[in-house]
Amino acid sequence: MNIASFLLPKAEVAYLRDDMTLRQGLEKLRRSGFSAIPVIDREDRYVGVISVADFLWNILAYNQNLEDITLKNLEHMTVRDFLQNGKVKPACIDTAMENLLERAKNQNFVPVIDDRSVFIGIVTRSDIIKYFVDQNRE
C-alpha cells in the first residue's frame, strides 16, 4: 500500500517558508505547538525540517556572549540560515508504507513530496505505527 491514503495534506500541516525571518519562524513554530516542522521555499518545494533545537543551537552559535542575544540582533537572519538541509529526507507520494518505518524511528513525521519535489504533506509516525499494528492483527 502506498502512503497517499495516510497523507495529512499541506493545507492541514504547520510549515515555515525558508525566507521567513527568525522572529516569524519562531512565532509560527511556537503557535504550532510542535517541536519540529517542515520548511518549504516560495515555489512550495520541500527544503527540510527545522526544530526548536536547530533555532536554539544556532542562536547560541551566532552569539557567544549570552547577554547580547536579542531578536533585534538576529532580525537579519532567516529560517534558511538555521536549517540543517538533508537531515530529514522526504518520501515520494508513491512510496510504500514499509519504506517509512525506518524513517519514523527517528522523527515524528515523514515529509511527502510529489515528483517535482513540491511539498504535499506529511505522514505521521502514529499513522505509520497504526498501519503496522493493524497489519499484524490481520
UniProtKB/TrEMBL annotation:
<keyword id="KW-0129">CBS domain</keyword>
<dbReference type="InterPro" id="IPR046342">
    <property type="entry name" value="CBS_dom_sf"/>
</dbReference>
<feature type="domain" description="CBS">
    <location>
        <begin position="77"/>
        <end position="138"/>
    </location>
</feature>
<feature type="domain" description="CBS">
    <location>
        <begin position="7"/>
        <end position="69"/>
    </location>
</feature>
<dbReference type="InterPro" id="IPR000644">
    <property type="entry name" value="CBS_dom"/>
</dbReference>
<dbReference type="InterPro" id="IPR051257">
    <property type="entry name" value="Diverse_CBS-Domain"/>
</dbReference>
<protein>
    <submittedName>
        <fullName>CBS domain-containing protein YkuL</fullName>
    </submittedName>
</protein>
<dbReference type="Pfam" id="PF00571">
    <property type="entry name" value="CBS"/>
</dbReference>
